[in-house]
Every structure is written in structure tokens, then in C-alpha cells.
Amino acid sequence: MRAIYLAATVMNSEKSKSFQEIILRLQSYWASQGCAVMQPYDMEVGAGTFHPATTLRSLGSKPWAAAYVQPSRRPTDGRYGENPNRLQHYYQYQVVIKPSPPDLQALYLGSLEAIGVDMEMHDIRFVEDDWESPTLGAWGLGWEVWCDGMEVSQFTYFQQVGGHDCAPVAGELTYGLERLAMYILNCDHVMDMPYNDPQSPIPLSYGDVFKQTEEEFARWNFDVANTDVLLRHFEEAEAECANILDQTHDDPKTGKRIIMAHPAYDQCIKASHIFNLLDARGVISVTERQAYIGRVRTLAKACADAFVQTTAGGHVQ
Amino acid sequence: MPDLLIELFSEEIPARMQGRAADDLKKLMTDGMVEAGLTYASAAAFSTPRRLCLTVEGLLAESPTVREERKGPKVGAPDKAIEGFLRGAGLTRDQLEERDTPKGAVYFASFEKQGRPAPEIIAEVLEQTIRTFPWPKSMRWGAGSLRWVRPLHSILCVLSDKAGSEVVPLDVDGITSSKVTYGHRFMAPKQITVNGFEDYEAQLKRAFVVLNAGERADAIWEDAKNQAFANGLEVVEDAGLLREVAGLVEWPVVLMGEIAEDFLGLPPEVLQTSMKEHQKFFSVKNAKTDQIERFITVANRETVDNGATILAGNQKVLFARLSDAKFFWENDLRVATSDMASWTAALSNVTFHNKLGTQAERIERIAALARELAPVVGADADEAERAAKLAKADLSSEMVYEFPELQGLMGRYYAESAGETAAVAAAAEEHYAPLGPSDAVPTAPVSVAVSLADKIDTLTGFWAIDEKPTGSKDPFALRRSALGVIRLVLENDLTIRSKPLFTKADMRVDSDDLLSFFHDRLKVYLRDQGVRHDVIDACVAMEGNDNLALLVKRAVALEAFLKTEDGTNLLQGFKRANNILSKEEDKDGVEYSYGGDVKFAETEEEKALFVALSSEGPVIEAALKTEDFAAAMSGMAGLRAPIDAFFEAVQVNSDNQTVRRNRLNLLSDIRKLVGSVADLTRVEG
Question: Where does the pLDDT of residue A291 fall: very low under 50, low under 70, confident under 90, or very high at 90 and above?
Fold first, then answer.
């Protein structure tokens, strides 16, 4: 056991060489800690929290442990690939464990070591930063984690999601992967960061992979996206979410009790992303903003209400 | 006498909550123990990011046994009542004693309340303290229901005396008390077993934890000052930041770093705000040039490279932050020098309030109002209007978007760079003032005009849409705006009729209602300066009460007058005159306002009062015309003796109707004259 630990330490003390190596190391670290390594959710979301593996699974009484990469889209942050660290599409690494284990801080610090942060040389700090998502009707207490003055992760104990108290409490860790990787790989511009091993036959930088898409999406997000269509899609997603949740719980075809919390939640995710696009297009005024956020929150709450009535949500018949 | 040591060890406590939490721990524990009979000699509490600690010296080993007596039911009361009493007191019937009282025979129970050992009491009080701790925000974790500011990991609770030390046994939701704590998270994470406070503090220090927040802050400040001094520089003082930083570390290590040359041209406030807000860095400046040249960061550990890696990391983060700031600054300057008005135009996309339109529309209104106010405050109308149009332009700038707290200040820099006059640039910064009751009030005429216009527009707007403050709710800070107007007017001694101004600002506003809100704020403001609310009421009741400066002059003079002997007596005399007059007028169903005639005066005192009225009347009238309220008050003082003498010697209700009516008319003259100075009927006493 001890020998293995030492070997692992030696391996990890070697610095990561690429963006993808950091992701791979996080994956294997959290897998070794017993998390189900999941795949990204197949819809556009603003943050890893929106993945149903976090939002919905943090509700109810059933234990849960998952880790995954989540591509995240924030249309307003697009800078045509020119800003050193702002992107309209980026990656978050997300870990969610319910109930939060007593050694979650130590586990987290272990993950930093796993990606090559030497605890003896760096200054790691837990600085108060409470988290709140008005669109999800969710909040929690925790910190932003600093490494030598740089925020490398968000660490949150969920208290409420979708208006429901979290009991047990889920612990959530979110790593902003590009920023963390830039720090570890010592890059000043995200586009210069090695995506794969620079010694590879075909070395690729982050820019090789994403510069093109950042430009294209920035233009579409800011200037081209058809706002009439988006507005309609928002309304449709909102209506469909309500429609799904309005259905009787007893499926007339199979006779089973099926509450469609997840399909409804997909519509909520859709509405939320469309709202972000509309926001980037600049067609939402400050006052309207609040109203839109409120509408998405209403959907999120309804989905949470539905989820806690499902078996996965801990409902016992 | 034993000593008590408690440590509550948790995950990182927000820096802003630590000091208060240590005080609360001390208060709740000592109050609880004393209430249970456990007195002590002294107590002190400490905090670090991961622990709250309490040390109590000279505690009683057990609470004293006391004799207690309780009155029970009457003799002969139903058995149920007696049994209930016995149950409550934990006694049996044979321990009761009958005593005669004025209300008949009553049972009394007299018994000894046994003292209890300290550990028992401490455990109870500590559990209660933990369960009810007043954190500003608390949370649950794991599968439990206990609340703490962040997950609570261990409870150290040790009672020690010469003979040795023992753990006070305690279990709070599975967290059992012990003698164990832990050192610095990274530098000495191992368990430490402690036997008392001195031992605890010393062992912690060896484990790289400075327990005392004050000691940490002092160490940081000393070291920061010395490092700066060694480089011929000085640290910019910031007590709040120092306190916060001391709450972020258990083992402070001060590191000074350089700010890259590229950024030294940024305004010092931008450097300072960016470093403080984002990084919690202190600014280090060159005292000769006032330029910020370096920064100081406080790490939470020592490293073999003496912090070189940590400093390099911090420097890199700062570089990125300041690159952003510089990018904003340069972009902003480009806009400011070419077309600052485009920023104001962009504010037409920003809603101020959905019923009050956009920021751009608001700026138009403020500009019109500032122009209106310009002559009154001694500003040039064009300049005031120009200043108002540009004052909020910086809200569109990138820098203010990033650092909202720099609003106004950036406006000043940008207006200066755009070649605006110094007065226009100053107004951009100063028009937000005064923000708090002790904030300095602008005095430059252009700034005053814009500041007043801004606040009056806010007030009239929210009044017109009926969004007034209620109780403790004042979401738009309208009380603060009104106080701002009051202070601007008074401290600059401005003669402004408010009501026409309110109507000018917003046609829809109920200007009487808004004015009475101002009068209420004025009362609060003047109360702090020692002017009574009824004195203000007496002046508010007068003509021209929407001229706040005049109103206050009158109130201050009246307050001073009423404090003199003449003032108190005149008030009594006036009230007596007024009471008699009102009563007789009621009775007769007429108003005596013809004016008295000295030829019907019978007594000397009556004649003397006529003389006093005719000599002081014109004095008072003239004083009021020139708003010389002190002179008006001394005119009133001249009436005091004749009024006193009149009531001493003269019976108003004479049988001779002519004489009676003349006297009532005389009293009416007094009422009218005094009433022209202030409405004394509203003054108490």
C-alpha cells in the first residue's frame, strides 16, 4: 500500500505536460477515490453544475459520487480567441459527492498534488466565497481555492437546489480547467497552451483546437444569432417543460409510475442556454434579465420538485 | 481553581466572521457558566482561520450548593396542584412546610440545591453554545443536521489544575471532545495533545500557528513596513485589509513583489483597487511621487525557496489582472479623448428603473435641473449642464464595469483627459457625495449643482412612482439622498425653495408629501445636533418651510432662545395668552383680531404691554424680513416681562365688555406677533 502510494507520488510529482494530461490525471485520481467517472452532458450548459449528475443528483437521500468534464458555454465571454483567458466555450472539471465526506478538503488537495502541484512549494488557501445560482434556485457555502493568489477551484457545500434543502449535503468541486492548466503549464495565453504532449508527432496547441471555433462562435453569438428564433425557442422550451411535468405519473402504456423529471430538466437547460445567447445578443434589458432568470428558476424548481418524487430522487413508494 | 481550555476546530472560517465569533464564544460560554453558578477570574478568546479558542482562568471546581425556597399552593389546595408542585421541585410531601401568609396558610418548600461539578456544567453550556451559535450564515454538511459556519471537525475541551488535566466529556452529533488539536494544515498537520492554555499556545506556535489574530496582524504590519522601508518605500495603510489578511493565515509570511514597469502609469487608485479587491495585496508606494511601485502579499507558509515560487505565482496573477486593468484604461482613454458623449449615449440601453426610464433619460433630467440650480449655487449654467451630462459617463467605461467602486473617480480622470474644465471633471467624482452622514460635502459650485440635481431627481422620481421608504425598507437609499440634499443645502448655506424645484424635477410628484419627508429627515439630522423635534415642528409650521436653510436658522435661534430664562417664561406667557384667547373665542364664537386699543387700557401693566408690543413689533418684523432670527428672538425677549406683569396684575375677563374685548384683542396681538416668529403652540412644556 505504502509502496504504491510512493510510486504514485513520484509519478505525480512530475509536472503535467499538456492540457489533456491534467484532465486525464484528474479523471484517474477521482476514479481512484471511488467516483463514477461520467461523460459530459450532451447539451449546451453554462457550467458543470447544470449537468443533471449535479443538479438533480444533489437532491434526495441517495448517496452519489460522480466526476466529469463538462464543456461549458458562456456566450458573453467570447473574445474571438484573442483574450488570454476568456473563452465562450471552455471546460470545467466537476466532482460531486453526497453526503460530503469529512475529508473532502484533503481529497481535493490530493487532486492538486495529482496534477503536479507541489504542496511544499505553493501557498494554498481557502477564501470565503459563497455560491449562488439564481437560475437554479440553488446556494451553498464554501470557498474559492487559491494557489499562490490564483483562484483554481470553487469548493461548495450545497445547501439548497431548486428550492429544496439538500439532505444529505453534497460537496461540489469545480475546477476551471483552462486557467488551472495555464498555471501549471506556465502559459500566458490560453491559445498557446499545449493541448497534447508537445513531444507528440503532431503537437497541438489549445489554439490549434479552438481558435477557429472561438472566432466563429463569437461572431454568431454577438451578431448573427437570430433573436426572434431564440425568443421563440425559449418560449417553446418553457412550455414543453411545463407540459412534461403536467403529465400523469402513471404511464398509460406500461402502467408504470414514470415521472419525467430528466426530460423536463433538459428543457430547463435549453431555456437557460437560450437566455444566455439572448443576453450575449444584447436584446435583454437589465429589468428583463431578472424576469428571465426568474422564469428559468421556476422551471428548475419544478424539475427539482419532480425529481424528488422519483426513485432516483429517493422517493419510496 | 481549575482553568478551562476550549478549541473548536473547523474548516476555514471566513475572515470577516472570525473576530466576532471569538467574542461570541467567550460571551456565550462565560454567561452560561456564571448563570449555572460557575464563576471565574478571567477569560480570553482567540481565532484563526481554522479555530475558535477560549481560555478561562480561575474557574470554580463546582457550583456552590445553595438553599432555595419555593412558595407552593395554598394549604387545602387540590391534591393535583400539590403533586404538581412537588414534582416540579423534586420533593416529597413530608418536606413541605405550612406557613401563615396574609392570604392564608400556604405550603413552602425549602431545599438545598446541590452544587454540580464544573465538567458537567461546562459540557452542557458548550453543547448549547455550539448548537445555538450566532453565525451570520451557517451550514450543514455530510449527512448530519448540526450547523456550523463550515464543517466542524473536532472539539478540544480540557480542564486543568495543579494536579493535572482532564478532558471534559462531551459529544455533539458524534464529535467527541478530546485533548487533541492539529497544527498548520501544510507545515505541521499532525495531532497535538495539549494540557492547558499555555501549553496549547506554545505547541501551536511550534506547529506554525499563531493563535492571536492581533499578534498576526502586528507581525504582518511590522514586517511589511520594514520590507518597504528597506527599499525606501512605504506601505499604504489599510486597517480593514490587514484584519482580513490576518484572518486568512495561521502562519503569516510577508512577501514583497514588484509591479511590472508597464503598469506604473495606471492611476494609483486603479492599482490599489485591483490589487486589494482581487488579490488582497497591500500597495507599497514611493512617498515622494505617491506612485504605487510594489505590492505586498501575505502567504500562509514558509517554503524552502523562501517564498520565491509563491511570489512568482502571485506576480503572474497580478500581471494578468493589471493587464486587464491597463487594457480597460487604455480603451477607456481612447473613447474619453475622442467621444466621451458616446458613453452617455450608450446609457440609453441601461434601464435605471422600469418606471423611471433609462440612465440616459435620467442624465437629461439631471442636466436640466443642474442648469436650473446653477444660479442659486453660484455656478455657470452651461458648465453645470455640461458637468451633469458627463458625470455618469464613466458608468459605460470598461474600468467601472470591472470595478464599480471606482465610479466617479474614473469619470474625473477621463473628463480631465478629454480636456474638460477642472470643475466639470471634479463634478464627475464629487456629485455622488455626500454618501454617509460623515462624508465630506462638495463645496465647488458645479459639483454642488450636479450633486443636488442627481439626488433631487432620484427622490422626486421614486416619489412620483410611489416607491417611498417604509419602516426599515429603503431599497433605493432615499433617506440617504434626502440627507445628502439637506447637508448640501445647509453646509453651503443655499437659499432654495424646494417645492417648485420638486415640481420642476417631476411634474407628477406630490411635493407636499416629499417636503414632509425632508422635514422628517431634517428632524433626525438636527436631533443629532441637539435641536428638539418640537422646536423644528414650530418652525415647520411657518411660511416658507420649503426653504431648508431658513427653516434651520429659525429652529436654531428658537432652540437657543427657549433655553434662556426669557425664552421659557415667554413660552409660558404666550401659552397662557393663547389658552385664554382660544377659550373665549370658542365661547363667544368670534375671532378677536381687530387689534387692541391702548385707550381702553385700564391698568399700568396693560398700558405697558401695549407699549412693549408697539416697540418690539416693528423690531421683530424688521428682523424677520432680514432673516435675522436672533434679533427676532431678542425682540420676543422684550415682551416677556410685560406679559408676565400683565398676567400678574390683570384679570382678562372684566365685567366691562369693552375692556374685556380690548384685552382679548390685545392677547390676539401677542399671538399674532409671536406667531410670526414661530408656531409656539407646537412647542412642548
Answer: confident
Q: Residue B310 is nearest to which of A148, A159, A166, comparing CB atoms?
A: A148
- Across the interface, do A183 and B313 touch by the CB < 8 Å criterion? yes
Contact B142 A147 (CB under 8 A): no
Report the complex ipTM: 0.92
Q: Which of residues 168-207 of A touch B (CB under 8 A)?
A: 168-169, 171, 183, 188
Which chain A residue has the Cα nearest residue B175?
A: A102
Say what the pTM is. 0.79
Closest CA to B7 of B246, B196, B186, B135: B196
CB-based contact (8 Å) between B395 and chain A?
Answer: no
Chain B residues inside the 8 Å CB shell of A143: 12
With CB atoms and an 8 Å threshold, state whether A169 touches B142. yes
Q: Which chain A residue is nearest to residue B250, measuring alpha carbons?
A: A125
* pLDDT mean by block of 10 residues, chain B; 685 residues: 96 97 98 95 98 97 88 84 83 82 84 90 97 97 97 97 94 97 96 96 97 98 97 95 96 96 90 91 94 95 96 91 88 91 86 85 95 94 95 92 90 95 96 89 96 95 92 88 94 91 89 93 89 91 89 92 90 90 88 85 89 91 90 89 89 87 90 90 87
Q: Is there a contact between A149 and B274 (Cβ–Cβ < 8 Å)? A: no
Which of B151, B313, B320 lies nearest to residue A148, judging by beta carbons? B313
- Set of chain B residues whose Cβ sits within 8 Å of the Cβ of A100: 141-142, 151
pLDDT higher than threshold 50 for residue A3: no
Mark yes or no for CB contact B141/A100 under 8 Å. Answer: yes
A85 part of contact set with chain B, CB < 8 Å = yes
DSSP classification of residue B4: E
Q: Please check whether residue A61 is in contact with residue A314, taking contact to mean a CB–CB distance below 8 angstroms.
A: yes
A2, pLDDT greater than 50? no
Which residues are registered as beta bridge partners of B547?
B497
Residue B464: what pLDDT? 92
The SS3 assignment for B101 reads strand
Amino acid identity for residue B447 in this structure: S
Q: What burial letters (b/e) apply to A117-137, b meaning 16+ CB within 10 Å?
A: bebebbbbbbbbbbbebebbb
Whole-angstrom distance, CA of residue B187 vs CA of residue B185:
6
Nearest CA in chain A to B275: A149
Spatial CB neighbours of B145, under 8 Å, sequence gap ≥ 6: A167, B173
To the nearest whole Å, the CA of B391 is away from the closest chain A CA by 21
Split at pLDDT 50, 70, 90, the class of A43 is very high
